[in-house]
Amino acid sequence: MYSPEFKLRVVERMRAGEKVGALAAEFGVRRKFFYAWKKAVEQGLGFPGVGHPLNPTVREGRTPEGAERIRELEALVGRLTLENRFFAGALQSIAELRQARGASSSVASSRKSKR
């Protein structure tokens, strides 16, 4: 099984425009899983599969309600991480545009009308 972090990284790379076939070849994972992970993130469903906890006793103590809540929270973290990265990139682009405009605008504004 793949960790939620790994799945989220793959989804981010898909959203960035990387070809799914290339990602599948790189990681040795079938493309259909990538599409399922992307759909899960977009719909806030959590990732398919249960994963394998490092401590087997944790798995035994989970209740169905607790496992569902964990899936919901993992999906929320995934969505918020994607949104955060998107907005951080947008802010950086805006800052770069402002900086470029400030450097290239050496001519002052026109004089005021005497009317």
Describe, in plain words, how this protein is organized in 3D.
- By secondary structure, the chain is mainly alpha-helical.
- The chain has one domain (4-88).
- 70% of the residues lie in helices and 0% in strands.
- The chain has five helices and no strands.
- Helix 1 (4-15) packs across helix 3.
- The longest helix has 41 residues, at 64-104.
- The chain starts with a helix and ends in an 11-residue tail after the last helix.
- Residues 50-61 have low confidence and may be disordered.
Helix content: 55-70%
The total count of helices amounts to: 5
Secondary-structure-based class equals mainly alpha
Query: Can you summarize the main beta sheet?
Result: none
Shape: elongated
Please name the defining characteristics of this protein.
70% helix
What can be said about this structure in brief?
This protein is mostly helical.
List the helices and strands and how they pair.
Blueprint: H1 4-15, H2 20-27, H3 31-43, H4 56-61, H5 64-104
